[in-house]
Amino acid sequence: LSDAISLCGGMTPKWVFSVARNVHFLFTFDARLSLLQSTALGLARTLHRLQERADAANASGGSRSSGSHREGVRRIARIPRQKIRIDRSRVLESACEIMGLYSSYKSMLEIEYYGEAGTGLGPTLEFYTMLSRELQREELGLWRSKGTVRVPLSNDVKSLPKLRSRTKSSTEGLKKAYVEYIVSASDGLFPSPLAGGESKAITAVLAAFRFLGRLSGKALMDGRLLDLRMSDEFNRLVLLSAAGASGKEQKARTHDDFVLTEMPFVEYDLRALSSVDPILAKSLNDLKATDKALVEDLYLFFVLPGNDDVELVKGGKDKAVTGENLDSYVHAVITYALFEGVKK
What are phi and psi of 265, to 5 degrees? Predict the structure, then answer.
């Protein structure tokens, strides 16, 4: 990573990436992050990283380069900056437009707010922090939650974001004097399962996750942090979908290339579900402990708990859960909650 010619010419040996990926436990997180930042974010950022390491080495060693030399390196390694001014009360709407326009640009985003004098790193970091919070609004319906927290709306909030809830109308949202944020499970955020078929609500949710993907990529490229702690199960699905798309020709990749069409070769059980939805996992565990002769008296059907519109099997609304098919029902619920309902 100190060889400027190899890095800038894209001549880093393939075994470096293979070792970092397959035996990652041999390297610190900082070392793996340095490899990513030095090889995957473009030439300008590679040069910028080399300059930062050289400056740090010179500072620690007490040596000083000539002023003209340092200035020349800065001119080569300078990353262009794109300044954007937004309305603080419409941060999520503004972010959707910004990511649609600038997410593929190599320039670094700098955010300013109308009516405020601040500029530079502080307002930009606040922008990413506010976005992380706004993406956890309960009305968006993006994540599973074990509860909500109400926060009063500030007086300068003029509108709600375009990313609407799947269940609540915009008129209802505008009448509220507060906004509700979800409380995720202890393991982190996991997507709320979608019903089958297509609808405007499902399209809006998928658009929100595409926006999240662009936002995450831009934050990674610019070296910003998002206060969004994803669950291990969600991270595993993301890695599996990325691995499936990596075998496809790069120019032909689309959103559909990253959709897992087949169930991955992983074991889904109540332990995996408990990290995502402990309440549902406990209910299913208690159900499995119920006397099989009494299961039919519970009047359960092959539909997703909490959403009778989602059938776990064809004709599930009319298929009763009995002692004989109880294990199949539990497996179907776990599979839909952790894979089928979120694979899009």
Answer: -80, 70
Burial label, 130 (beta-carbon count in 10 A; 0-12, 13-18, 19+): middle
CA separation for the pair 22, 62 (Å, rounded)? 38
Q: Where are the beta strands (DSSP E) in the chain?
A: 81-86, 108-113, 148-152, 178-182, 303-304, 307-311
Per the document, the length of the chain is 344
Q: Which residues pair with 303 in a beta bridge?
A: 311
pLDDT (tens digit per residue) in 200-218: 788 888 888 889 888 988 8
For residue 305, CA distances in Å to 111, 291, 308, 312, 317 come to 43, 20, 7, 10, 12
Q: Which of 138, 141, 129 is nearest to 91 (CA)?
A: 129
Is the pLDDT assigned to residue 338 strictly greater than 70?
A: yes
* Strands (DSSP E) found in 28-92: 81-86
Q: How many CA atoms lie within 13 A of 233 on its CB side?
A: 28
- Coil, helix or strand for 192? coil
* Residue given tokens 């979908």 in the structure block: 241
How buried is 194 (Cβ within 10 angstroms: 0-12 exposed, 13-18 middle, 19+ buried)? buried
Band of the pLDDT at 265, cuts 50, 70, 90?
very low
Closest to 95 measured CA to CA, from 50, 130, 120, 60: 130
The single-letter DSSP state of residue 337 is: I
Return the structure tokens found at 116.
Answer: 């405020």
3-state secondary structure of 162: coil
Which pair of structure tokens corresponds to residue 140? 């968006």
**CA 334/CA 273 separation, integer angstroms:** 7
- Tokens found for residue 221: 């490229």
Residues 6+ apart with CB under 8 A from 211: 95, 96, 99, 163
pLDDT in tens, 25-76: 888 888 888 888 777 777 777 777 777 777 666 676 655 544 444 444 445 5
